[in-house]
Backbone:
């Protein structure tokens, strides 16, 4: 079925659900429930915890592809997270009209390798998407992410109005909000943030990267940014977080621009605990985790632990 036909059929089904009082709609392998056309199913894509594998694995190598493969293998391999026939959404940070060297967006090399890994594991479809801040076409082109993702076999979606569904996030701050269809209708979600200093939240890593799954007037959330980040992290729990610390934006985030603000740790982190992933990654910014309000709040809310070593941690070189 072509994507346009699929979206048309989905829209009709949502309308029917509203008329009939909120029946369930089957999107791929997930049951999505509606209330008067509002999706109420949380986007929880987590895999079952396993004592056989650590929850956070850090790998260091000057070759980003090797660093990713080392980290991924250390946490169980792609086969633990992606099954044959599944639809996978990969969510990098593509917010800004910047080059890879400026470290404002996720490395295109990592995005391409993740797509390759997912397809090798048997994924039926891999989508790469993000709600950008600058013009989407320029962001996806100049970052190199569109070219890398499509070359690896992904479908790249630059969201338009039809690419969102209204969802009830059930948060303390975030309630009904437009969320990307590619997130609500996939089987697996892989969050691929880059590590950056952020002028409002202190840092933007995995949990803050989830801002890119929602539409609407996102600037309204900045007044209570820590709570909005935690609301999103509670609603949308990724299958896997792959943290790009190959380049790190130390200052003047999140947009950056100056190469003088960029460090090159040549590191990739794979994690199943999104709080622990952020807690480890913020160390690259030399910011104490205690100073990051949304990490503290997420831990307090039971979303994960900031004490990443206690969660199960491994470093590979």
Residues:
């Amino acid at each position: 079925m072509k994507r346009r036909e699929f979206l048309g059929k989905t829209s009709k089904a949502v309308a029917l659900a509203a008329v009939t009082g909120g029946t369930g709609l089957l999107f791929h392998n997930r049951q999505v429930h509606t209330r008067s056309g509002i999706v109420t199913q949380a986007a929880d894509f987590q895999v079952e915890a396993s004592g056989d594998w650590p929850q956070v694995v850090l790998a260091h190598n000057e070759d980003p592809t090797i660093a990713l493969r080392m980290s991924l293998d250390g946490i169980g391999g792609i086969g633990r997270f992606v099954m044959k026939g599944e639809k996978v959404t990969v969510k990098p940070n593509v917010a800004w009209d910047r080059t890879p060297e400026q470290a404002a967006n996720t490395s295109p090399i990592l995005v391409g390798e993740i797509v390759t890994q997912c397809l090798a594991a048997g994924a039926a479809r891999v989508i790469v998407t993000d709600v950008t801040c600058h013009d989407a076409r320029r962001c996806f082109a100049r970052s190199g992410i569109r070219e890398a993702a499509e070359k690896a076999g992904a479908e790249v979606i630059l969201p338009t109005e039809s690419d969102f569904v209204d969802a009830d996030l059930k948060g303390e701050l975030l309630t009904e909000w437009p969320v990307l269809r590619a997130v609500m209708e996939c089987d697996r979600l892989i969050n691929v943030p880059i590590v950056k200093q952020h002028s409002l939240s202190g840092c933007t890593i995995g949990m803050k990267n989830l801002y890119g799954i929602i539409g609407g007037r996102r600037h309204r959330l900045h007044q209570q940014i820590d709570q909005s980040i935690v609301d999103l992290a509670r609603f949308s729990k990724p299958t896997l977080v792959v943290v790009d610390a190959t380049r790190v934006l130390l200052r003047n985030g999140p947009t950056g621009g100056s190469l003088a603000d960029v460090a090159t740790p040549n590191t990739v982190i794979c994690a199943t605990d999104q709080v622990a992933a952020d807690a480890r990654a913020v160390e690259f910014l030399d910011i104490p985790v205690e100073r990051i309000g949304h990490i503290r709040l997420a831990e307090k809310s039971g979303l994960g632990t900031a004490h990443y070593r206690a969660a199960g941690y491994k470093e590979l070189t």
